[in-house]
């Protein structure tokens, strides 16, 4: 009986410590990757300013070619919407809408992963020599949920490789058309 009581008290203390520490963890998860593409911003911009065009270089669609995609709003720019649905756990279900677009410079989107939460993604295009530095970023407010804050620590590991793969795909696509 005494052993069970010690185990329970130890578990309770451990849980309280983990919850307490979570409140000093960052309240926001941020991930970004960059690549230089040998093309001017005006050649790259259409591929990040249209959800339909992202289909050509997305790092996630190769995981589940059966992903169901639907589009709404205009074909590009603010209001262009992508809805996706997949049974693959690394693809999932959600929507993405372009909320801000500055021609040849920047695109910002709102992501909604349903019960998994929301986030903001962005693309920045900066001329660099004869090419363009493309930065793909992501940020999500984690709120006060202790589990979300612990998961936020893993976001770069979970998403960073996909962002790099997507940028590599975009580079291959754009430079292959030159």
Explain what you see.
This is Polyketide cyclase / dehydrase and lipid transport. It holds the Pfam family Polyketide_cyc2. The chain is α+β, with helices and mostly antiparallel strands. The protein has a single domain, classed as START domain (Alpha-D-Glucose-1,6-Bisphosphate, Chain A, domain 4). The chain is 35% helix and 33% strand. It has five helices and seven strands, in the order αβααββββββαα. The protein has a seven-stranded antiparallel beta sheet, covered by helices on one side. Helix 1 packs across helix 4. It is elongated and about 75 Å long.
Can you summarize this structure?
By secondary structure, the chain is an alpha+beta fold. The chain has five helices and seven strands. Pfam families: Polyketide_cyc2.
């Amino acid at each position: 009986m005494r052993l069970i009581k010690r185990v329970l008290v130890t578990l309770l203390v451990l849980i309280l410590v983990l919850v307490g520490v979570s409140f000093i963890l960052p309240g926001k998860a941020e991930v970004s990757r960059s690549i230089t593409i040998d093309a001017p911003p005006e050649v790259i911009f259409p591929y990040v300013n249209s959800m339909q065009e992202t289909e050509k270089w997305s790092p996630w669609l190769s995981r589940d070619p059966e992903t169901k995609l639907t589009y709404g709003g205009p074909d590009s720019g603010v209001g262009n919407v992508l809805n996706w649905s997949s049974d693959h756990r690394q693809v999932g279900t959600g929507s993405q809408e372009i909320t801000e677009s500055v021609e040849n410079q920047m695109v910002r989107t709102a992501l909604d992963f349903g019960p998994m939460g929301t986030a903001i993604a962005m693309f920045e295009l900066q001329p660099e020599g004869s090419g363009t530095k493309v930065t793909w970023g992501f940020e999500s407010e984690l709120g006060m949920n202790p589990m979300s804050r612990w998961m936020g620590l893993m976001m770069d590991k979970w998403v960073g490789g996909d962002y790099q793969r997507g940028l590599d795909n975009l580079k291959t696509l754009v430079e292959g058309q030159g």
